[in-house]
């Protein structure tokens, strides 16, 4: 495995192979196999373009050869920051064939995050769109290339290098295929190595659970770089079944409803915030959405009252999904009773997923009691890339990943997310590290100390509140947002609200007591 990654122990790898979970196939070889089986069926729809499996396969070969001619080799990392376009898919498969490793970057990322990803991954290139959402991504990539010496290439999506296909050695299926990003408990995102074997398994099992077949049509609404749309079952899962993936450039209701009608979409995945938007829009839309069979909702808490509106509004099944880029996925199933679908986040997708729920001392708690979720299994990472110190804390000595989520299990074996122990704000599914934002806030000359906490929000679930202890005249919200933007932070990380206090409540250990702070703020007694 790539140096800096933590492999599964040999005996686990053997067990996953014997059980048929890991099949020793690379994602690049899988596309060849799908092209042989589904040939001229449509793999991808992007705007007016309809791309067959055969064409996607040939395109990936040409891109792989083109990248190789530019000097990209097996093991090289490239930061890929693209919206939901066909080029992302073709490029990833080209890189899988080459053994080069895409590092998935969200389109919302700005200089601060992209620079960090480039440095952390040791990338030698960046891929960006020419134009997207009124932002100059090419300028951003060039700026980063100017300050990160290792970056030798800036590729633009509309002019990716292509060449006549060349024979390439097959990468090791047990090795990394690409990097996903962690939701970030530490100041900046960490890299999650996902292997060919583990991701092929994840997409296959989730496609099976949802009974995807050649007639399945998946609508990609969330940013393609998220684990959820990419492979839960998402795009790769619908390919596994010989179906079609349709790209949406925006999660706005009307354009999505139009695509659902036009392409006869059968399955999509969204976050609760988008669910709200769509539910509001349905009564005003006359689009025919009768093709929809499943709407998957996850990434943040879905309230049972909202959950109950989904089936009546869309005439299709709701599936609650709990997941993480690190691995573990839990789904509700077609045969679950209604109350389970409305009030729980389902159960693990693999029989080999191991789950522990533990108290603060690390002891298992009884069924029904909330505790921290620990997990290990055939598609859950064993370590972040190049992060030995963090790994020592984030994993138990026997390889369980500490999720930072507070969950409880019902007698029926279904999981309910109760909260979290990690210092993260979940803003409509976007994860924001409090530590990261705090560090930037204290760069303001008039901010002595800062603590970032979540405040409840009807639509987003949570919003970000920056609580500051000023030094002199306290800055106002627009000034703080401007500062953070100038420091190269993605927009979704900017605080929604600021509160000024004289001191922070402390825990017995002398750390800021964020629970109590958040409660005070939510109670409205914090001064402005
Ligand atoms: C998904 O992945 P990430 O990596 O952006 O975030 C993971 C975290 C979880 O640890 C948990 O805190 C939260 O997001 N989360 C949920 C949830 N699903 C995820 N919290 C409450 N209810 C849920 N249903 O968010 C992700 C990855 C794959 C599939 C779905 C979601």
From TrEMBL:
Gene (UniProt): entE
Originating species: Lentzea flava
Single annotated GO MF: ligase activity
Annotated PANTHER family: LONG-CHAIN-FATTY-ACID--COA LIGASE, NONRIBOSOMAL PEPTIDE SYNTHASE PES1 (EUROFUNG)-RELATED
Segment forming the signal sequence: none
Keywords: Ligase
AMP-dependent synthetase/ligase domain residues: 32-385
Residue ranges annotated for the AMP-binding enzyme C-terminal domain, each copy included: 436-511
Keyword presence, Transport: no
Domain of life: Bacteria
CDD domains: 23DHB-AMP_lg
Name of the featured protein: 2,3-dihydroxybenzoate-AMP ligase
């Amino acid at each position: 495995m790539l140096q800096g990654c933590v492999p599964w122990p040999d005996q686990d790898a053997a067990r996953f192979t014997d059980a048929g979970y890991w099949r020793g196939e690379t994602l690049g070889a899988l596309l060849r196999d799908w092209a042989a089986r589904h040939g001229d069926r449509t793999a991808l729809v992007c705007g007016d373009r309809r791309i067959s499996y055969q064409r996607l396969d040939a395109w990936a070969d040409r891109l792989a050869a083109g990248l190789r001619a530019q000097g990209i080799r097996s093991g090289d990392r490239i930061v890929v920051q693209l919206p939901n376009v066909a080029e992302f898919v073709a490029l990833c498969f080209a890189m899988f064939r080459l053994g080069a490793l895409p590092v998935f970057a969200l389109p919302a990322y700005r200089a601060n995050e992209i620079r960090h990803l480039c440095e952390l991954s040791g990338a030698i290139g960046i891929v960006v769109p020419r134009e997207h959402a009124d932002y100059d991504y090419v300028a951003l990539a060039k700026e980063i290339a100017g300050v990160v010496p290792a970056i030798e290439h800036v590729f633009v999506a509309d002019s990716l290098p292509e060449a006549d296909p060349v024979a390439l050695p097959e990468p090791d299926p047990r090795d990394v295929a690409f990097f996903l990003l962690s939701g970030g408990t530490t100041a900046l995102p960490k890299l999650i190595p996902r292997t060919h074997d583990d991701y092929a398994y994840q997409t296959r099992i989730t496609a099976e659970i949802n009974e995807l077949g050649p007639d399945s049509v998946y609508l990609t609404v969330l940013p393609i770089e998220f684990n959820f749309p990419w492979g839960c079952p998402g795009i790769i899962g619908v390919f596994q079944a010989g179906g079609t993936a349709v790209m949406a450039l925006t999660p706005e209701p009307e354009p999505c409803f139009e695509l659902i009608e036009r392409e006869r979409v059968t399955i999509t995945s969204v976050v609760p915030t988008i669910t709200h938007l769509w539910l509001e829009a349905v009564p005003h839309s006359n689009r025919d959405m009768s093709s929809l069979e499943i709407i998957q909702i996850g990434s943040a808490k879905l309230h049972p009252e909202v959950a109950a509106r989904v089936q009546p509004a869309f005439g299709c099944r709701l599936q609650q999904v709990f997941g993480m880029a690190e691995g573990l996925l839990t789904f509700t199933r077609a045969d679950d009773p209604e109350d389970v679908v409305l009030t729980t986040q389902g159960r693990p997708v693999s029989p080999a997923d191991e789950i522990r729920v533990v108290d603060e001392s690390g002891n298992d708690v009884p069924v029904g009691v909330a505790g921290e979720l620990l997990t290990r299994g055939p598609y859950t990472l064993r370590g972040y890339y190049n992060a030995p110190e963090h790994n020592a804390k984030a994993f138990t000595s026997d390889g369980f990943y500490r999720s930072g989520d507070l969950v409880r299990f019902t007698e029926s074996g279904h999981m309910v997310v109760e909260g979290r122990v990690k210092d993260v704000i979940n803003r409509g599914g976007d994860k924001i590290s409090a530590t990261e934002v705090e560090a930037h806030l204290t760069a303001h000359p008039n901010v002595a100390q800062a603590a970032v906490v979540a405040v409840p929000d009807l639509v987003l679930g949570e919003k970000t509140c920056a609580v500051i202890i000023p030094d002199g005249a306290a800055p106002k919200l627009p000034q703080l947002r401007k500062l953070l933007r100038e420091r190269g932070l993605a927009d979704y990380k900017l605080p929604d609200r600021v509160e000024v206090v004289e001191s922070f409540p402390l825990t017995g250990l002398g750390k800021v007591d964020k629970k109590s702070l958040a409660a005070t703020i939510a109670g409205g007694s914090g001064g402005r």
